[in-house]
Amino acid sequence: MKIDLSEGCFKVIMTGGEVQEPIVQVVTLKKMSTASGQERYRACLSDGKYMITVAMITAPVVDKTSEKGIPKYSVIKLKRYITTVINNTNTSNNKADGGRVLLMLDVELVQDGDEIGEVIGNPVSYSVATAQETREGSPPAKMRKLNGPSNSSNTNGESSHQDLNKSMAGQMTHPITCLNPYNNKWIIKARVISKTPIKTWSNSRGEGKLFSMDLVDESGEIRLTAFRELVDKFYDQIEVDKVYYISKCQLKPANKQFSNLKNDYEMTMVNDTLIEECHDDTSTAPHLRYDFVPIQTIPELETNKIIDVIGVVKSTGDLQFFNAKSTGRELRKKDLILVDKSNAAITLTLWGADAESFDGSNNPVLAIKGARISEFVGGKTLSTLSGTIVKTNPDMKEAYVLKQWFDSEGSYLEANNVSARSAGGSTFVTPWMCCDEVYESQLGSSPAGDYYQMKGAILMVKSDNACYKACPTPECNKKVIDNSNGMYRCEKCNQEYESFKWRLLCSMNVGDWSANQWVSMFSSEAEKVLGKSAEEVGALFESGEPGKYTEFMEEAHFKEFVFKCRAKNEVFNDEGRLKTVAIKVDPVNYTEYNTYLIECIKELTDAS
Asked: Could you tell me the pTM of the whole model?
């Protein structure tokens, strides 16, 4: 298959012009690392006639191109890209490219490099001199200048002072990821994803105020902070989720103690700072970006680290009022318990107005950007800061999957709380009870349910509806409807599938020396009791030999386990009833259990 590259296109692109969706070849692609942790690649590209070595592409763009990324020698279409001039010590020695960098924002794989295996044509290194010669003539077909003469930038990235003060719209913009302290002639076009309230301070050196806002464009994100009189000038002008042109700010190394944005730098407004709202099409400007951390991994992270996390609010504490020791100012806070699919829970503290207005009823999903990790009595907790963004029930796939898991299964499970206080190196355990104590204690009145553990034996397994055909998608366990045509419909997903998966939902009578009770078990725990997977049980159920199926179920009788249970009162047909779910089932460890019994005997002996 012959591939036609957009021969000579780099002569226009690398001097500020534009070519409509050029076809180029990736000669090399090397991963680069940054202090912010954002993965980027540096590429050497060829248009068949000229080669450039100053092309950049981010890891997410590479990953979405194909399953194996962009192999060497691949031919790609540049669907969206920008060029920018960087004058710093790292690029000043690269005279061939004039300090201009090509940033690829969206690409399409035309042909896999493994199928080509070599460089197409005989390209030579691009030079500015050659490009200038071309620009004096007529541009090639399908090529046009990016900027008209009224708002053009020269090849050193400089725009006239007069143009900047009139309007920044239409002028060449600079990617956020390419900002650096060595070049102060730039304009960025970015969306404001958050804005902090105005904070004031007073100390021996004087008084002041500040606010910060987080910005994002197609290449990355950065924080911008204003102090003193610039707060009055810009605070009311800036609105969250709007897009602005911004120029003339001071760059300095980012303070990672207060930010988890993936950028080595942050910006500060100065007297010459220019900010202008963008009234053009802003659909390509991205919105909020998250880098979620599973709750179960938080204990491994260092204290004071700023992270993003998503979880379901399992419980909400009361609003608390107290005075700060240093200033005497009244503070307000509210503690929440978040849980995620790793079945780990953590305490999150909201402050101020967020704490006062938060409603945790109906177990909402929270997506939090920029929470700080704290340590308390051996456990890890999370706390919001002034720049933390908290979204309730956000419109995102992760939130839907998490809520579905919680409603179908997670709310019944006892999560491992990484914020739990420790005693002797281990967290406090679930209380032991016998069946009779469960009835006498009238468990189940708590909104989140009551938890206990017991040692008991399986007395009976209801085999009639112990397994069912469920939606085959990993996120859904809803029972499907057999359409009798080889297809199975899931009402929850509103989809039809050619297959299904077996799920267990067993009701078992569990007893000990004092009494017995009915306990429900989901697949993971029922499989431990039955000794077979849900698929194996389902196959036996449909084998056409009911006798074998019943005999198999009876094999579980009189087997002993330790059951960790959740008891909760529920209303069914206007009648209250106690529903008990075994959230964890383990074989009896008689060494540990006997140790527990001996401790109980000692307590009774000492008490008498």
From this structure: 0.49
